[in-house]
Amino acid sequence: MAKKSGAGKFALGAMIGAAVGAVVGIFTAPKSGKEMRQDAKKCADKAVKEGKETLSKMADSAEEGLEKAKDKASDLAKKADKKVTELKEKTSEVVEETKSRAANVKKAIKTPAKKK
Q1: How many domains does the chain have?
Q2: 87: which of 13, 68, 95, 111 lies 20 to 30 Å off by Cα?
Q3: Residue 11 confidence class, pLDDT cut points 50, 70, 90
Q4: Which residue range forms the structural domain that includes residue 73?
């Protein structure tokens, strides 16, 4: 299970606290049943609106995080590709140098040394 961020936990706690406070306020107020139902509906509508707003903010934050992660991954991929290219070039250079030295050794072996 993914861990919630501090902001997400705070927002969830604030929403729950607001909802509980509103419900307690509605049911402890001396009002008629009709007024109480209207207040309960207003409270529920407000909680839904606030929940949607909080969810939207969290979604925006998640999208920003995803874009940053994509950018970082792209940068790392480019750096890795560059390093691979550099290593291929160096490897080719080493192979060519080794071939050249091997040819020189082979030539030296075939050519007898001059006696003095």
Answers
A1: 1
A2: 68
A3: confident
A4: 18-109
